[in-house]
Design brief:
By secondary structure, the chain is α/β, with parallel strands linked by helices. Helices cover 41% and strands 18% of the residues. Strands 5-6-7-4-3-8 form a 6-stranded mixed beta sheet. Strand 13, helix 13 and strand 14 form a beta-alpha-beta unit.
Amino acid sequence: MIYFLHGISLSGVIYGRKIICQSVWTLQHNWMKCSTSTIYALSTPPGRAAVAVIRVSGPQVIMVLKRLARFKKIPEPRKLFLKKIFDPVNNKILDQSLVVWFPKPKSFTGEDCCELHVHSGTAVITSVLQALGKLPKTRPAEPGEFTKRAFLNDKLDLTEVEGMADLLNAETEAQQQQALSQMEGCLYNLYSGWKDRLKTCLAHVEAFIDFSEDENIEDGIMDVTLKSVQSIFNEIQNHLADNRRGERLRSGVKVVIVGEPNVGKSSLLNLICQREVAIVSPRSGTTRDVIEAALNIGGYPVLFCDTAGFQETEDLVEQEGVKRAFHRLQQADLIIHVKHCLELIEQRNIGELVNNIYKPAFLSAFDTGNVDSQNNLRSEHAEPLKNSEVIVAINKSDLLPEEIIKENLKEKLDKECVISCCLISCKTGYGLNAFLSLLQNKIKNLCGDSGTFKSSLTRDRHRFHLIKCQKYLKDYVSEEETDIAIKAEKLRKGLIELGMITGHVCTEEVLDVIFKDFCIGK
C-alpha cells in the first residue's frame, strides 16, 4: 500500500533551531488500507443486451476462479477462457461465460481482479451475483469502490479519477476530449511539476535556515528561490485566468433568451431546438416560468433557457416569472436578447441603443418592485452581465413594409453596433443561418478550442486549492522583512494545497465527495 504521505509530514513554525509542531498530516484511516475483503459488482448497465460484465477485485479472486469457473490451476493472465459458471454451494450450472484474470499489480485496482462476461438476462446476472456472495470474505462493492481502490493503490491520482468520472458522464465530443486529457494525467503532470519545483524551493530555504551560519550555502540561493517562487505564482495565475472554460465545458454553457413580451423568444428557442419546446401564442405573457432545453451545439453542451418577458405587471405569477428571468440573467454565460425590429426603424442612434442594452439604465425601464432585492438585482445596483457574452437578435423582419427598409436597417446594425447582433425572422427563416453561425462561434469561444483541453481547469475544488496556494506564494514573495522561518511555512502550506488537488494530502471528507457520484461497479 502506498499512502498519500510517506511517513509523517510536520507543518510548523521554526524559531532558531526549535520546531513548534502545528499539525501532523497523517491519513491512517482503517478504510484507506488495502481491504481484506473481495468486492464484486455488475459493471455494465442492467437491461436486455448480449453480454453483462461482472467485475471482482480482492485477495479472494483466485478462489472465485476455482470455485465458480472450476479452474484447476491459475489461468494465464489477460486471456479469455470459455467456462461454465457453477453455484459454489449446490454445484448448479448458472451460465456459460468468458472469464479473464488480471493479476496484481497490473490491474485496474492494483489488486487481483477478474471479470465474468455472462449473458445479460436478469436471472443469470442475479444468480451469479448471489453465487459470489456465498463465498467467504466477499461482498458487493459500494459505489465507486473499484476506482477508490485504484486510487488507494496509487494506480490513479484524484485528478485522473475526476477525469474518469467526467468521461463516464460526457455527452458531447468536446466533453469527451477534455475528460480523456485529464484522465491521461495532463493536470496531474502540471500540478506535480509545480509541487516538485516548490519542494526544491522549500529545501533551499530550509538549508539556508540550518546552514547559512556555517557559510556552506552557495551565494544567491535565496534570490534564485525567490525568482522560482515568483515564476510558479505567475504560472498558477495564468492557469486560473481561463474564464472558467474547462468548468463551463464540463457543466454546459448556460444560454438565456430574454426580451420584452411577444418579441419571439419562444419561437426562436423552438427553431434552435428544431422542436416545439415552448408554447407560442400571440397573447402577451405566454411564458411565465423558465423553460429549459439541453442541446449539443458543434460538439459543445448547451443549456438554453427561455424566460418570461420583461414588463411591468400586477399579476403575481408574471412578477415571479420576471424575478426568475433576472435570476437566470445573472447566471448566464451567453445572453440572447430578442427585440422587435419595428422598435428600431424609427431610432436615430440604433448602435447606441443596442450597445447599451445591458447597462443599468436598461433595467430601470422595468418595475424594480417586481425584482427581489435579496437577489441584488435592483436597477440602481444591477451589473448582471459583466462576464457574459451577448447576442442581440432583432426579430420579425418579415413585418418591415419594404425590402429596402430591411436592407437599410441591416446595414446600420452592421455599421453602428459593437455588440453582436443579427436581423432575423423566426417566421420566414430570414437571417437564421447567420444567427446560428454566430451563436456557435460564441459558444466555441466560451469553451475554448481543442488545443486548450490538455490543461483546462475543470472543477471548483482545483480552483479553490490553487487560489489558496497562490496566496501563500504571494505572501512569501511580498513579505520581504518577515522571519525566514515564517516564509518557509508559507511554502509548506502552498505545497499542502497542491497536494490536496492530486490526493497526496487529503481527507476522508474530500474522498467521499469525489467518489459518491460513481456508479456501483466502477
